[in-house]
Every structure is written in structure tokens, then in C-alpha cells.
Task: structure prediction
Amino acid sequence: MPFVNVKIAGTATVEEKQQIIAGMTEVLYSVLNKKPETTYVVIEEHDTDNWGVGGESLTVRRARHSG
Result:
């Protein structure tokens, strides 16, 4: 029983989440021959204030790079 945990900074739409779930399931099937009906995919959304890279939060980083 495969279990995939996808963590993203920010939010995704319902449609985007469905694409992620379908894509992860397909990868496990095509690469490892894991049955889609027993593959679990969990998506965790994290506020960009709680995710950092290069010593700064993604909120700060994105604001700096967007303007």
C-alpha cells in the first residue's frame, strides 16, 4: 500500500489537487506497478510564512521577487 505525502507552500485549487493525486498515482503505477486502488496520496498545504528557503520565508522571498 503506497502512501505519498505531498507538501506545498500556499494553496492549490480543487482541480490542481485532483491533478496531483492522479499524477502521483500514475507514477507509482507506471514505475513500481503499484495498484491505483491501494495508493494513498495526501496533500498538505502550508502557509508561505511557515516555509523558508535561503534564510527567509517564502512570503518575503516572493514579495521581493515579484516587484
About this structure: DSSP finds two helices and four strands in the chain. Helices lie at 14-32, 58-66. The first helix runs from residue 14 to 32.
